[in-house]
Amino acid sequence: MVTWSRQSGGRVASVTRRLEEALLEGSFPANSKLPSERELAERYGVSRNTVREAIQQLGARGLVHIRPRSGVFVSDQLRTGAPSPWGQLIADSPARRADILEFRRVLEGATAYFAALRATDEDIERIRGAMARLDQARRQGNLSGESRIDVELHEAIAQASRNSMFLHLHSSITKMMREHIIRNVDGLRELNESVSEILLLQHRTVCDAICARRPEEARTAMQTHIDYVRSRFDDEEE
What we know:
The chain is mainly alpha-helical.
């Protein structure tokens, strides 16, 4: 009985660790629904009871939310906890815009580079889907939709980098500054119609480079995009 109990506990711990790794690497994005217990049991070669216990352990730590009759959903706590007081000050300060964009230039240039190197077919499909939705929002003149999908596209690129630290940093920073970014980019689009077209072209250039698996070109395209946004803000301030 003791041996059986230890084996059972070992299997639960193993499945828990594998689920944790999947959360870290972005296989199960924040707010997404986990596969069913049956699917996970088949994937990991264990019983459904073992999967259920592992999920309960994740739930107790706030990493997933168990919703009766709906399923198990990934919490956004892992990547995007509540902003720190420092983060909130940064997000609410127009004077820190240059710092934000400078940081994004380095971080997102790197994520684009590694996305081009490591993106899976599923990642490429996700990036292309976001790009298609961005293009549609532009054609419809949906400014708020453009900015929202803009953020989703950058998140998809970060996930495609297959680097858990890039993904964690990008997701945390994006949540901290989401409203700040959207508000300011919306303003640029509203002030000048041509800005939306240029931003769309830049995003397409980044996506094409990633999908063609050209890392240096992807990094340069992303940095060019961030530099353009920064230059437009500078022009408006002048």
